[in-house]
């Protein structure tokens, strides 16, 4: 047993008590009545990091929920690891579904229940305790920076401002984000890819004003008709997106990733019945479920506006219709390039009698972490040692806008969480398995040690 | 000059004064504050008809805006003509756009301006004055029945109840409805066809709940996708409706109708630019504009509900989506049969991963008047005499639900209005050309005389 493991074992009970104290602070960032609690949580984290021997600890952007910034003792000649996490939590509603109150942490059957247990207090605290565990005698193996924000659940505005204002402060050799989950129990995974996003409103206009379908039905163009034709052309029933050039920038997953994904415990039938809860899965059938959700772009319609949607039977021919749509993007697509491709496709595929326009609302580039990078190899080694199984390089179909911002200087961003898929983040009875919390401390501690070797 | 013409000429000034008195009553049926005015208008009509020598005059359904029912003197052995019209009017808003106040009738440049001038007080009063003009000495040429309601602008509820409760009372040899317009100045027209309607909501459901497009985009079915696919299949871009059997009941317009339509003064360019105000007309190109709007069924999308239609960028995969749609029906389609055809087509054309349902909200069968019927020939003769040009058998693309109800006993319903296309019904500065009002009295009077010969 290593020194690290022994330390975690002997101090484990204290670590858990400290985490409970952290969880008792109802730091709900979206609720203005909890602004004081968010500040208390920030101060609690600041005091922790001071107490653990960080020579420089400060609260940034303190006009809002502050960002905790801390620097560990300087270790000349060693790499720098930036640890990112957040102390804010989701609202606990609906309260009546909690078995025990959300801000009164309690252990039942090996799980610690509380709002924020896994997202993200438990996980970021595991990283803090990992630092404590390897910082014995004030000599950590690497240079450590902490960046722990309080607006992750509400837009990360202050963080984005800080990252763009002071990019040099977050220069690092690796960024460790402990805010995700294992693929399955005993299946540690690192998300090596995140999809990007291109969200747009497509509007078609076919006449100056709405028209009466009795008088003009049969000859007047119908905006919803035009939109339906356009949308049906933009994506084929087989799931292929008909936007010229869209797929050319798509980088297929590596052989190593594919092989990793094949090994994952996955039951398509169960996925369909229990998660998607539909009659059938859709999309490009020649690709696996993982490829379709992690490594291929999507085109989704979110809603259609215009015409008459009230109660009853109004026989209007709509003059204009708007669809809210979005594309999920994958490496190496670029949001800006996809915007141009979408505009071109919309103009080419819309019926000639319609005027079309596209307005972009929101977007993000996709993220890919090179799994041959050294930090990835080291986290894999840490998991192998602690869990007995190395990391599966999974991806996420979603977008986490803070990730590309954290990695802007080229450092690999390692999304190495220790949550479990049934942790119920954002839902009642959120929990973290106590065992996973301790594993997190050991894995992150080993990672810091390996980085310093 | 006939006796009738002479009478109209000598009494014309009085007729116009009486019409002005009728127009001064603000009988807005949709506005409860005008309930008393609606009653006053009904009583005014009742008193007119009594004064003109109708032996039986009564107010029906007087718990609401009453229906005026009157029977002319009995003329044994002669046919019966039922005259339908309405005394209620549309609200006058927006008031500030009226050149003269809506309920202070005034003649300018040969036009009488007031709310209800053409829709329908001026026109129904022309029919009443026609009766007066041919009822000299208490001996009209035919048996006349008046049915003048006060809910035409608000659903005709009382009228429908009366017609289904006492169908024998409205048995007639012809029904004269004076509530429509010439096709163009000097182009009298009778609407010989009205389209029916089948209004429905088509709902597709693809999963139990909305899903996150990051996690499930690429494999989860999208309800809007399914609806768009379905709708794009239900109608081809060329305008053909892909509902099996839909066109088989369609009776093409007669040779006489087609020839009449060809003669009508119609400018497609002007129609497109000034009425439809679009880049192009749509629909089945091998048919004329008249055929497409009067003699062919349509399929229109009115609006699409479901998913996310609020401000901003929510990346939801919708679990359900509903389209409001309607079909206009033409002779000899039947609403009930079309409902079944639509359900079958929706089930056949929807993607297999979607559950579909259809809910019907509203409908009406189409109406066709046989232009070889005697009353039609006689109204044609009356117009020839008065206007110097016979009737063009036009149709209307819209639905007037009261028309099939009035003709339920097989009597031809003659929609022979004397309005003009620029009368601005339902809009500010509604008017009737004074000349058209007098022509109406003469045409309807001659029609009653011809019916009695």
SSE order and pairing:
The structure is a homodimer of 453-residue chains.
Chain A (H helix, E strand, L loop, with lengths): L2 H21 L11 H17 L4 E5 L6 E5 L8 E7 L19 E3 L2 E3 L7 H14 L8 E7 L7 H9 L8 E4 L11 E6 L1 E10 L5 E2 H4 L6 H12 L20 H9 L4 H9 L12 H7 L2 E8 L10 E2 L2 E10 L5 H15 L5 E10 L2 E2 L5 H14 L4 E5 L5 H5 L6 E3 L15 E3 H19 L1
Parallel strand pairs in A: 3-6, 3-7, 7-17, 8-16
Antiparallel strand pairs in A: 1-2, 2-6, 4-5, 5-18, 8-15, 9-13, 9-14, 10-12, 11-13
Q: Could you characterize what this model shows?
A:
The structure is a homodimer of 453-residue chains. In chain A, helix 1 (3-23) packs across helix 13 and helix 11 packs across helix 13 (434-452). With 453 residues, chain A is of the alpha+beta class. In chain A, strand 1 and strand 2 (67-71) form a beta hairpin. Chain A has 2 domains: 3-194 and 367-452, Zn peptidases (Aminopeptidase, 3-Layer(aba) Sandwich); 196-250 and 297-364, 2-Layer Sandwich (Alpha-Beta Plaits), CATH 3.30.70. The two termini of chain A are 19 Å apart. Chain A has helices spanning 3-23, 35-51, 121-134, 157-165, 213-216, 223-234, 255-263, 268-276, 289-295, 335-349, 374-387, 402-406, 434-452, and strands at residues 56-60, 67-71, 80-86, 106-108, 111-113, 143-149, 174-177, 189-194, 196-205, 211-212, 298-305, 316-317, 320-329, 355-364, 367-368, 392-396, 413-415, 431-433. In chain A, the strands form 5 sheets. In chain A, strands 1-2-6-3-7-17 form a 6-stranded mixed beta sheet, sandwiched between helices. A 4-stranded antiparallel beta sheet of chain A has the order 11-13-9-14. The first copy, chain A, has a 3-stranded antiparallel beta sheet with strand order 4-5-18.
């Amino acid at each position: 047993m290593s020194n690290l493991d022994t330390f975690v074992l002997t101090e484990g009970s204290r670590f858990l008590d400290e985490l409970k104290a952290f969880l008792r602070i109802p730091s709900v960032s979206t609720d203005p009545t909890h602004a004081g609690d968010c500040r208390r949580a920030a101060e609690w984290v600041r005091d922790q990091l001071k107490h653990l021997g960080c020579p420089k600890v400060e609260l940034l952007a303190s006009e809002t929920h502050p960002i905790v910034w801390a620097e560990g003792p300087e270790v000349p000649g060693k790499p720098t690891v930036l640890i990112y996490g957040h102390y804010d939590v989701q609202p606990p509603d609906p309260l009546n579904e909690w078995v025990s109150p959300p801000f009164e942490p309690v252990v039942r059957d090996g799980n610690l229940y509380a709002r924020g247990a896994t997202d993200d207090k438990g996980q970021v605290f595991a990283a803090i305790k990992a630092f404590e565990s390897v910082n014995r005698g004030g000599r950590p193996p690497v240079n450590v920076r902490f960046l722990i924000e309080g607006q992750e659940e509400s837009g990360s505005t202050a963080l984005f401002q800080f990252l763009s204002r002071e990019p040099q402060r977050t220069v690092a050799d690796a960024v460790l984000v402990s805010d995700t989950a294992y693929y399955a129990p005993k299946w540690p995974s690192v998300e090596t890819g995140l999809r990007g996003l291109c969200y747009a409103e497509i509007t078609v206009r076919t006449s100056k004003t709405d028209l009466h379908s009795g008088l003009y039905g049969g000859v007047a163009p119908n905006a919803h008709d035009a939109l339906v034709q356009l949308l049906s052309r933009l994506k084929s029933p087989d799931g292929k997106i008909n936007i010229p050039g869209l797929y050319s920038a798509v980088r297929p997953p590596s052989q190593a990733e594919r092989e990793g994904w094949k090994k994952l415990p996955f039951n398509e039938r169960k996925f369909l019945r229990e998660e998607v809860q539909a009659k059938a899965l859709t999309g490009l059938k020649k690709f696996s479920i993982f490829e379709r959700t992690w490594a291929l772009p999507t085109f989704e319609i979110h809603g259609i506006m215009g015409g008459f949607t009230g109660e009853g039977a109004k026989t209007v021919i709509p003059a204009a219709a708007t669809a809210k749509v979005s594309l999920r993007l994958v490496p190496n697509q670029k949001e800006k390039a996809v915007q141009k491709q979408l505009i071109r496709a919309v103009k080419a595929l819309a019926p000639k009698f319609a005027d079309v326009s596209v307005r972009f609302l929101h977007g993000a580039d996709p993220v890919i972490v090179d799994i041959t990078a050294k930090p990835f190899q080291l986290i894999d080694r840490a998991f192998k040692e602690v869990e007995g199984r190395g990391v599966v390089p999974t991806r996420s179909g979603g977008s986490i806008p803070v990730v590309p911002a954290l990695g802007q200087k080229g450092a690999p961003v390692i999304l190495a969480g220790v949550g479990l898929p049934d942790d119920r983040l954002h839902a009642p009875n959120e929990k973290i398995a106590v065992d996973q919390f301790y594993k997190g401390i050991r894995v992150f501690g080993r990672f810091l040690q390996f980085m310093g070797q």
